[in-house]
From TrEMBL:
Transmembrane segments: none annotated. It comes from Neolewinella agarilytica. It holds the Pfam family THUMP. GO terms for molecular function: RNA binding; rRNA (guanine-N2-)-methyltransferase activity; rRNA (guanine-N7-)-methyltransferase activity. It comes from the Bacteria. This is Putative N6-adenine-specific DNA methylase.
């Protein structure tokens, strides 16, 4: 995801990736099958783990088709299996990704038919194998197998959400950008359906995000069930109790109930305290040692998708509450409404531009000093 590449590099290093090369919205690296299984299970800021099968230049469709057919796809196709193809392009020469996936499908299906006399079936919903084709600006074609299957943001704990949920990968990325590692109290005072709080609880408990879902590689012909089971067991063995409070709160009881259901599904409910409160009335959990402070990360309504009376007054109230009730904390707010953010009226110590789906957002940090190191009531 754009803006999270550096975090992904750190995550990849931690699970033993080699030859790591970050790009824009992609990080290339090398690793074996154990690494592939761990990457799918453990990465918090990755969207999908692709296994590259070939890379070539193609300035026209015929060359592309021929080169795609030259690659031996047979080890990856089961006789009764279903396949699916996704494609994307940054090239002006190939702007229609549906056409590209059709061309790729033809190359694979024609090769399979020539070898076996049969036609593999194509189905998105029940795909055993998902192939991925990407064309770069310079017509470089990269073809891969998608070992994740469904996007990794689908952790498997969220079924229903409130009005404007944040993507799980973005939530984990925001927490990564704050440096959160579970060593201070954590609060999301407008937690909605609980995505940020669930990701925080997973970080604090060292719980791998993919423990409750399946992956594409589990249906591959080379699937190693024994290896997968030991990779999962290692991840389960690493789970620990959080050392500091993790609190999710929301003014809306119904939405909070969705957070409860998600946290329960993720096996995290016992580690999180849920409160039904207006942010203005919420008490900050105190750290074990006063000097440790605490971390508040929240995604308030920003009017694009949720309506709240006067958004400027609402954000000014957020600023007042932070100043009065959250001394000693570091607060981070993600918002797509820059005018509203200005009315928070506290000095930002960092501002990170990002995208929340199609919406341009800023992730702003406020250091809410104790005592005399005052917050300047001035926007930078
Ligand atoms: C954008 S949503 C948060 C979505 C959340 N990050 C998720 O992934 O589901 C904003 C939330 O702020 C809550 N909210 C609005 N005003 C509030 C207030 N004064 N105090 C606490 N929560 C409030 C809304 O009920 C809503 O659930």
């Amino acid at each position: 995801m754009a803006g999270l590449e550096d975090l992904l590099v750190e995550e990849l290093k931690a699970i033993g990736a080699e030859d790591i090369q970050p790009g824009l919205r992609v990080v290339n690296c090398k690793g074996d099958k154990t690494f592939r299984y761990r990457a799918n299970l453990e990465l918090r800021t990755g969207i999908r783990v692709l296994v590259q099968m070939g890379q070539f230049r193609a300035n026209n469709e015929q060359t592309m088709y021929n080169r795609l057919r030259d690659i031996d796809w047979s080890p990856w196709l089961k006789k009764d299996g279903n396949l699916w193809i996704d494609a994307s392009s940054q090239s002006d020469r190939y702007s229609n990704s549906v056409y590209l996936s059709q061309l790729f499908k033809d190359a694979i299906v024609d090769q399979f038919r020539d070898k076996t006399g049969e036609r593999p079936s194509v189905s998105k919903e029940d795909a055993d194998m998902t192939f991925y084709l990407h064309v770069g600006r310079d017509n470089t074609v990269t073809v891969s197998l998608n070992s994740s299957g469904d996007s990794l943001h689908r952790r498997g704990y969220r079924r229903r959400t409130g009005g404007a949920p944040i993507n799980e990968v973005l939530a984990a990325g925001l927490l990564g950008l704050t440096g959160y590692d579970g060593s201070v109290p954590f609060v999301d005072p407008m937690c909605g359906s609980g995505t940020i709080v669930a990701e925080a609880a997973m970080i604090a408990t060292r719980q791998a995000p993919g423990l409750r879902r399946e992956f594409g590689f589990q249906r591959w012909p080379d699937f190693d069930a024994g290896l997968w089971s030991s990779v999962r067991q290692d991840a389960l063995n690493r789970i620990q109790k959080p050392e500091h409070p993790i609190v999710g709160s929301d003014i809306d009881e119904l939405t909070l109930n969705l957070a409860k259901i998600s946290l329960e599904r993720a096996g995290l409910l016992r580690h999180v305290e849920l409160r039904n409160a207006d942010f203005a009335d919420l008490q900050a959990p105190r750290p074990v040692k006063e000097e440790d402070g605490g971390l508040l990360v929240t995604n308030p309504p920003y009017e694009v998708r949720l309506k709240t009376g006067d958004i400027t007054t609402f954000y000014a109230q957020i600023g007042d509450t932070l100043k009065q009730n959250w001394k000693g904390y570091t607060a981070w707010i993600i918002s797509g409404n820059q005018d509203a953010v200005k009315s928070v009226g506290l000095r930002t110590s960092r501002k990170i531009p990002m995208m929340n789906g199609p919406i341009e957002v800023r992730f702003c940090r406020y250091d809410l000093y104790e005592g005399t190191k005052k917050e300047k009531k001035k926007e930078e």
